[in-house]
Amino acid sequence: MEQFDVLVIGAGAAGMMCAIEAGKRGRSVLVVDHAKAPGEKIRISGGGRCNFTNIHTAPANFLSANPKFCVSALRRYTPKDFISLVQKHAIAFHEKTLGQLFCDGSAKQIVTMLLTEMEAARCELRLETGVDRIARIDGGFELALSSGANVRCQSLVVACGGKSIPKMGATGFGYEIARQLRVGLVETRPALVPLTFEVRALERLVPLSGVALDAVVAHGKTKFQEGMLFTHRGLSGPSILQISSYWREGDEIRVDMAPGVDALAALKAARTATPKRAVSTVMASFLPQRVAQIVSDDEGAQGNIADCSDKVLGRLAAAVNAWTFKPVGSEGYRTAEVTLGGVDTNDLDSRTMQAKDVPGLYFIGEVVDVTGWLGGFNFQWAWASGWSAGQAV
Ligand code: FDA
């Protein structure tokens, strides 16, 4: 029977950070992961450059049934702390937009950095190793690993992420552990995910597939202004991924496809100044050409702008500044960047991530019901929750 102070399930962002911190405190640490390589989601993140944090991180950038839960960890381990670590390893980075920090080179540098730190903290990593059984014992836990080894630990850290991208090994195993050990769960759903249209709407919009534009996308009072992309299934792009975390089946979404342009005023002015111009040409001054064409066709405004009544211009303007529709669904966990919901934060201590009713059991990272916006917030949560547990295990 092998014995460790701390056993971490999952060598992702949160698990590696927790292991490093626990190892630095002199704890003996074993990290197991069923994947062939550690930190696979880090490697593919940010288009291969890893958007590893956001300098504007604040609790308001996170969704959770208990919005205050993330405050303590985010305060204890900040973007500045992670930036110091990145600088210590001489990894060059830049701010792309909106406080989002990316590696200049490759996301692999972040994985290497974490592995180097784990080695320095004398953490042991076993890959291609799953967990077959977990039992509570006096003073800790006993685990049967898929390698055949039986391991005992005082602290068990569940860092196996959410359900997004099953192709990359996401299993939902963390939720099973929570169920087994009677820790509460908040219903999960795919988030930061493209939204899809029903067949009839798709037929109409299919010619737009591949067109991108800047848009304000709103769900109720929540709004994001970022890029939007028409796809062959519906809509994607940062603004749509952001709003997908708030959207529920049956809800409407409102899109302003020309932010900062009062389309009605622009159309009326064009009718006076250039009456012989085609409606779609006028619309193309503030919309991509293909979108301008489809919107004009949809409203039956195919002639010159001079032929359009105020009523028609009003309809055209609404289609531009307040296009309202009901997505039929999302692309699901297959492409979702994260999982909304998860381990109920009411059952966890916000300072340590320890389960209130199961001493020695910790949940960190995406498996917990804390989900960040797009833009480096999810990694900052993984680092911060991992760091916090690392001080306590
Ligand atoms: P993570 O999923 O990273 O790690 C979990 C680990 O547990 C994995 O190594 C997995 O193999 C292992 N595991 C799972 N089940 C197991 C089992 N049964 N037994 C053993 N091991 C098991 N965020 C961000 O802030 N900036 C970004 O740029 C991006 N980009 C991005 C791109 C794409 C394509 C995706 C899918 C996601 C992102 N994200 C992101 C989100 C980010 O990747 C995510 O929030 C973190 O990786 C979560 O870290 P965790 O450590 O909690 O889980």
TrEMBL record:
In terms of domain of life, where is this protein from?
Bacteria
What does the record give as cofactor?
Answer: FAD
Residues of the RsdA/BaiN/AoA(So)-like Rossmann fold-like domain: 5-391
The entry's keywords: FAD, Flavoprotein
Concerning InterPro entries, the annotation shows: BaiN-like (IPR004792), BaiN-like_dom_sf (IPR023166), FAD/NAD-bd_sf (IPR036188), RsdA/BaiN/AoA(So)-like_dom (IPR055178), RsdA/BaiN/AoA(So)_Rossmann (IPR057661)
Q: Name one Pfam family in it.
A: HI0933_like
- Show where the RsdA/BaiN/AoA(So)-like insert domain sits: 189-338
Q: Could you identify this protein by its name?
A: NAD(FAD)-utilizing dehydrogenase
Species the sequence originates in: Caulobacter henricii
The organism's lineage is: Bacteria, Pseudomonadati, Pseudomonadota, Alphaproteobacteria, Caulobacterales
